[in-house]
């Protein structure tokens, strides 16, 4: 039987989530995606109109098929958690069942089970502010959207994950080294995500024979990264200073994710795996 993957955090064809979906599709997995509610309309319209057809192309020439797109807002676990102003917001009112619990239920009703869970999402309203100027609300929002969202997804999807399955999330080295400008609590959120990777690897391993890993990816000019404001500088810095002086392709992260969730990585869990042209190993840039 082929594997089935749910990838949370795909809303265009530029980010890591899209590249991971493609790598998994190329390896034969069935692809379900979770798309942030406010981005759903434009994503589905673009898909339908063929705007992504070129980037849907897989190495064998066929086009990646997305079996279903689920609206998702990973900062809400159940309908009771959704505040009134969000419920009635017109970008949300057109969709339903998009809290984490409801999405897991919908996937269960539609497909029964999954084998692979991918978390490729982050958000921090104050990301352009230094930590020293970040509000409590902004900091907690970053953690909620970027770290707890993974805890919640795993909590709700674990019961429908087949034993032997695996999860992967995306992190960034700003968790462990200081990257000025990666603000708003995002560095803190990534530190939480990495620490949780170990704890959840233990808990989900014991409870459901599920592996939990995270990829510490190098810089990519995705939509989310452009919101930070200095992604081009990060890409240039990496090019100048990394052991491998080449562009980092989203597909390289996609391929590593496909490896990590495959039986080839059956003994790898609780790990932070660097896919960054080796930049993390450098102590002095020359
Ligand atoms: P992206 O823009 O493709 O992905 C972020 C996604 O998160 C978007 O689709 C957005 O709609 C979604 N999202 C935001 N808030 C959400 C919510 N509350 N519920 C559901 N979805 C929500 O950008 P990218 O950069 O590919 O990000 C994917 C992951 O990779 C993130 O965790 C990011 O921190 C991580 N990463 C990115 C790096 C980069 O340089 N682009 C470097 C290292 C890690």
Q: How does this structure look, described?
A:
The chain is an alpha/beta fold and 286 residues long. 41% of the residues lie in helices and 16% in strands. It is built from ten helices and seven strands. It has helices spanning 16-26, 37-48, 84-88, 90-93, 100-111, 136-157, 186-208, 223-228, 231-241, 250-260, and strands spanning 4-8, 30-36, 66-72, 114-119, 161-171, 211-217, 272-275. A seven-stranded parallel sheet has the order 3-2-1-4-5-6-7, sandwiched between helices. Strand 2, helix 2 (37-48) and strand 3 form a beta-alpha-beta unit. The chain is globular, with a radius of gyration of 18 Å. Residues 9-11, 14-17, 36, 39, 72-75, 120-123, 145, 170-172, 217, 219-220, 222-225 line the site of 1,4-dihydronicotinamide adenine dinucleotide (NAI).
Q: What's the rounded overall pLDDT mean?
A: 97
Question: Which residues sit in consecutive blocks of at least 5 with pLDDT less than 50?
Answer: none
Strand content: 15-25%
The helix/strand series, from N terminus to C terminus, equals: EHEHEHHHEHEHEHHHE
Fraction in helix = 40-55%
Give the neighbour order of strands across the main sheet: 3-2-1-4-5-6-7
Bound molecules: 1,4-dihydronicotinamide adenine dinucleotide
Please state the structural category: alpha/beta
By DSSP, the count of extended strands is: 7
Keywords, separated by commas or semicolons:
single chain; 286 residues; alpha/beta; 7-stranded parallel beta sheet; 10 helices; 7 strands; globular; binds 1,4-dihydronicotinamide adenine dinucleotide
